[in-house]
Amino acid sequence: MVRTNFYSQKTHHYDGIILRLRKGYSRQLSLTIFTRQAGLLPFLVPKGKKGYNQGFGSLVELSVVTFEGYERQGSHFITEYESHGSSLLADLSWDRYVYTQVFTEMVLALVPPEAPDDSTYNLILRYIEAIAARNVRVATIIAGWQLTACAGFQPDTETVCVYRYPGEAPDGQIRYYFSDHDEENMPPVPVSGPVRRLWQALIDYDWQHAAPMQLPRKDLALLEQLLYSYVEDVSGKDLKCRKALLD
């Protein structure tokens, strides 16, 4: 729906999820929002004398927000909004909070801007619901692998070959890379049949109707490290919050 606000700007209605929030210059909030209507977009929220425009609720990361917005000279602005924010992130321990930031980084690394996708939008919603009720680490690993599928990068869990880069990265992390065929003079990392079946089960996981899963600790730890390496590999971007998991 297109409307016209007081300043004669054409506004559009959006439903979105706040992924990043930063306080910028000139009394503005800078938000990165994945919207159902237009995909991933940056928005600015100017601050007036009575706060951030005509808003209801708190603007916080990983909150659902409905709002009116307009574009001017290449920038997007929010006018009226209603945020369904909660104290979810504030109530998490530091370790659990870091996992939510890793998930956000994976979304920003894999999802192109201005590319609406209902599967991705709904996955982020399921993740927000899950971290309030489930193990945040497990939810992040499951959602991360499902995110690779939404983004078109789903690996063939039955046949893909996994290799380890020699040495360690400067941040102390082990890095893996993936190939569809055997690398000459390079032994692959052994990935057992049960691990590969668990890998596919995470990708196929139904957040609303799934039966309890057996998650062997070592298998889950390997799939977690493979996830971060895979996202970095296919996106070409480092996951900066990954290092915080070691601290």
Automatic annotation (TrEMBL):
Pfam families: RecO_C (PF02565). SUPFAM superfamilies: ArfGap/RecO-like zinc finger. It comes from the Bacteria. PANTHER family: DNA REPAIR PROTEIN RECO (PTHR33991:SF1). This is DNA repair protein RecO C-terminal domain-containing protein.
